[in-house]
Inverse folding.
């Protein structure tokens, strides 16, 4: 163990620093500090030695140079177990520094401001701080390093339990956290500056991307038992996203549970009205609106009672006793909602294996991120990464173009917009039959759009649901009229799709021949 006798403290964020320094003084620790931190200590009657006095070299260049000195880095890097290190330090009058407390210039917070300039960003790139942190973290056997105020209380507990010393295991943990902090800091700088071109203009995608993720948990296995897996979250998470879920009960989430739960949650929170989404193998197998949670669930379940078995169920409203009683009659893998009544939770207690997740819906906010949505999507390919802006496009009635002779009724228009929203979350090729605020048949993931149409119709037939006068959404255009012929034969009255095929005229003519309403959106929603 290393007894802490001398500490260097230089922090941008002063949170908790007075309490930490005061306790260190009580443990007879000598404190070195710089600039504003040293002044704060003096103002609070905490004994402190200015680093400039300690090194004999003044702070200069507007504070850019203050800790880049051999007496600082030698004190941090010198190994106590190597006689040659000890002799060299003694010859140069370099004393050991046993504790470094540094948090860095607020680069991330600075560039997050809408009015941040390149000059502002550059001035908030810390040089001396990261250099000291690297030195201390490299020499973790002899030096403890703190890089965040959240570590202070636990560190003091460690010292008080060990008579002013810190164990090797504890210092190694701090070292790893320190290198992670430096990695995240450098990556944030790289991400920001890589967006700029030589002429000062900015690109949407940086020249280099530095993904930063924190492990949430190891998983039992991946998609299949022979694959190992872990779950990570973004360093900074969007509000109301799956990673913020609080698990109230049930078994540990699996890899597939998490993937399907995310698909269900992203779909259900896209609706403003009370909604329920049931997902199986990444595809919605039932989606519905209702006056309350029970009605929404009952309609969604009715779409495909077979596929709903062992599915993921998500609500965008509080689950009450009535909805809980209905859900508990089925085998459910994961249940997600913003909240649950006490009576609902009591019902699920009897189903101990059901994974019950609570996720607070984001409140307010104009940007996609503030609304709990990712800004970018990515997909791994061999030794590479595909990155795109997330499909956050929201369509309104004013964006629609009615291309047939027949016009939709207000109810049909509402159902068309509902169906279009559902199709956005179905794997391509996606065909979704809907009516009265619920899905009637979902065809997903087929190589042919005609096959997806046929499967959706079969699903409805198997569920005993009539497609007469239903509406249909297709995530992409119909390349030939055959898809229109199939859905018309199934009983559909309206269809919404992007349009844009070279055979649009032929497709529209087919719709007119069948007496259908056809609306084009000009927007495609492929989901691969």
């Amino acid at each position: 163990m290393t007894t802490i006798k001398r500490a260097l403290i230089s922090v941008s964020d002063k949170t908790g620093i007075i309490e930490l320094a005061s306790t260190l003084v009580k443990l007879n620790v000598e404190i070195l500090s710089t600039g504003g931190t040293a002044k704060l200590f003096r103002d609070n009657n905490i004994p402190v030695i200015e680093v400039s006095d300690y090194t004999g070299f003044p702070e200069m260049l507007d504070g850019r140079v203050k800790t880049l000195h051999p007496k600082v880095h030698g004190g941090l890097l010198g190994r106590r177990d190597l006689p040659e290190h000890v002799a060299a330090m003694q010859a140069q009058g370099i004393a050991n520094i046993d504790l470094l407390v540094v948090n860095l210039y607020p680069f991330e917070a600075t560039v997050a401001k809408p009015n941040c300039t390149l000059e502002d960003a550059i001035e908030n790139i810390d040089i001396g701080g990261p250099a000291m942190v690297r030195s201390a973290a490299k020499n973790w056997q002899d030096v403890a390093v703190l890089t965040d105020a959240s570590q202070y209380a636990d560190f003091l507990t460690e010292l008080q339990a060990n008579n002013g010393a810190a164990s090797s295991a504890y210092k190694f943990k701090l070292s790893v956290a320190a290198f992670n902090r430096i990695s995240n800091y450098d990556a944030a700088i790289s991400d920001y500056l890589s967006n700029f071109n030589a002429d000062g203009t900015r690109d949407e995608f940086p020249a280099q991307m530095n993904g930063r993720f924190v492990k949430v948990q190891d998983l039992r296995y991946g998609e299949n038992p022979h694959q190992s897996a872990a779950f990570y979250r973004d360093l900074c998470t969007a509000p109301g996203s799956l990673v913020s879920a609080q698990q109230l009960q049930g078994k540990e989430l699996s890899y597939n549970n998490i993937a399907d739960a995310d698909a269900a949650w992203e779909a259900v929170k896209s609706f403003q009205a009370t909604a329920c989404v049931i997902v199986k193998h990444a595809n919605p197998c039932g989606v519905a609106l209702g006056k309350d949670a029970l009605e929404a669930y009952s309609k969604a379940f009715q779409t495909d009672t077979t596929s709903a078995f062992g599915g993921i169920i998500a609500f965008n409203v509080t689950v009450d006793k009535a909805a809980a009683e209905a859900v508990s009659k089925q085998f459910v893998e994961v249940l997600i909602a913003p909240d649950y009544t006490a009576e609902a939770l009591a019902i699920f207690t009897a189903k101990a294996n059901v994974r019950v997740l609570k996720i607070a819906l984001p409140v307010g906010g104009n940007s996609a991120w503030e609304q709990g949505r990712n800004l970018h999507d990515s997909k791994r390919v061999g030794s590479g990464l595909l990155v795109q802006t997330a499909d956050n496009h929201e369509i309104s009635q004013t964006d629609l173009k009615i291309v047939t002779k027949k016009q939709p009724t207000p109810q049909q228009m509402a159902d068309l917009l509902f169906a279009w929203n559902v199709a956005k979350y179905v794997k391509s090729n996606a065909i979704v039959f809907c009516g009265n605020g619920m899905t009637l048949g979902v065809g997903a993931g087929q190589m042919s759009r005609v096959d997806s149409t046929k499967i959706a119709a079969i699903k409805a037939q198997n569920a005993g649901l009539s497609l007469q006068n239903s509406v249909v959404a297709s995530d992409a255009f119909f390349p030939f009229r055959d898809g229109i012929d199939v859905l018309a034969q199934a009983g559909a009255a309206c269809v919404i799709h992007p349009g844009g095929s070279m055979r649009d005229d032929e497709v529209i003519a087919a719709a007119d021949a069948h007496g259908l309403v056809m609306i084009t959106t000009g927007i495609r929603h492929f989901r691969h």
About this structure: Residues 179 and 271 are 42 Å apart (CA to CA).
